Structures are given as C-alpha cells and as structure tokens.
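Task: encode each sequence below as structure tokens.

Item 1
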Amino acid sequence: MNTKKITRYGLLIALAFIFSYIESVLMVPVPVPGIKLGIANLVVLAALYRMGNGPAALVSVVRVVLAGLTFHHAAMMLYSLAGCTLSLLVMLLLKKTGRFGMVGVSVAGGVMHNLGQLLVAAAILETPALAYYFPALLLSGCIAGVVIGVAGAEILKRLPGR
C-alpha cells in the first residue's frame, strides 16, 4: 500500500472517529435510548462511493472499534459492531445492484444498523420484548439515513475526483 493510500485511510478513520466523539457527547432529545444521527456514516458513505467496498468496511470497523474502546464499554462495542456489520453488508449489496442511489443505500444502512444492534441486545438480554423498540428505531433509521444520504451526496459533489 502506498503512502498516499495510507494517508487517505488515516484521514478518513480520524474524521469518522471525531464524528463518533461529537455524537457521543450530543444528547438527542428523544424518549427511545440509542437513537443517533450517525454522522460518522458520512465518512463511510464517502469511502464506499469514492474508494470502494474494502476501504469503506475498513473505515467503518476501525472507527467502531476505536470509538468503542475510547467512549464506551465492551457491550456497547459489541452492539455497534453488529449494527456496523449488518449495515455494511446491506449497503454493499444494494450499491452493487445499481438500483439504489446514495440516499436509498444510506436509509437501508441506517435501518440495518439499528436492527443489528437490537438483535444483539435481544440475544444478550434474552428477551424478545426489545422488539417493541423496532418501530421507533425503524423510523429513526429512515430519517437519519435520508439526512446522511443527502449530505453524503452533496459532499461527494464537492470533493475532487479520485
């Protein structure tokens, strides 16, 4: 890997990590715990659309691990990794079909991230009662996905080519 590529990865990971920090200190005034905008996913979307699947996956997973080690505890990192993994897989598949724009891919990613976290929480807590959170998480994932997808598309328009 050349120096330019390593530098680009480092910058993207650092930016995603900073966005994770900002989000960890922001309080979202909603009654359902865990709802966030997912601003670090702006960086993942940019990496996915500018650099490809592997770089996007690397940025996403490294950001989740770094944020988990820095701002959260092990269980939170496990939830985030589950959400990150499911979200990435779905986003990669939808982008590959060519039938979805960045906003659609982002919405699916937001919803799947929430679903992944919810599934892990239900397994750890051994209760399906957490499914009652899903409608609120579905709505928040859609809203966040649209916001992040629109912002990501605007950012990519303004970035210089590869």
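Item 2
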Amino acid sequence: MDFLEKLNYLMEKNHLNKSTLSKACNIPYTTIDGWYKKGYEGLKLTTLRKLAEYFGTSLDYWASENVECSNQENLSDVHRQIILQLEKMPESEIKAVLAFINSLDDIEKAFSADNKPGE
C-alpha cells in the first residue's frame, strides 16, 4: 500500500476527514489536501512523525509499501473487537489494560500454586 492508501485507511477507521486530521495532527490543511492533488513526493520527516504519533504507528509503517493496514483475517470476532477498542484508547489506557491482563496472569499463577496437592 502506498502512503495515501494507508492515510485513507486510517482516516476512515478513525472517522476523520482532511480538516479534522489537520487540526488533530497540527498539519496544515493545504499540506494534506496537496498530497491528494499534487502527490506526496516531498513529504517531510517531521510530518510523518506527526502522523505516526497521532495514529500510533511506526515510521516504517509509512515508509514501507509492503505493510498491510490490517492483519486481522485469522482473528476471532472477540479479538477484533478488543483490537478496535484498544485502537481508540490513548497510550496510557492501553498500558493500564496490559497491566491488568498481566495481573490476571499473576493471580492465576498464585492461585494454582496455592491449590497444588501435598503442599
């Protein structure tokens, strides 16, 4: 996928248009509009960083044409729903969810150790 295909995918997924993306990323509207009218040949690294930070992607995601936007074909509906919810969260909330999941694993280990026969 090229740059504009990735941008279109992420904008659609996040319910953004050029104007709302411009405001959210602090990228001039004329710059974003120009990518569609004139191409993105002279795209600046600072602009890519703003997009990567806003959408939670790597710079490699934007630079490589081999990156797919979605690798969810083999996931269950529950997994897809979890991913969709996580993608809407800020980084701090995602870290809290991960900490919670890790704590469940710790609780399960402690519980299974307490219930071993003969101990």
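Check on item 2: Helices lie at 3-13, 18-25, 29-38, 45-55, 59-63, 77-88, 91-114. DSSP finds seven helices and no strands in the chain.
End of task.
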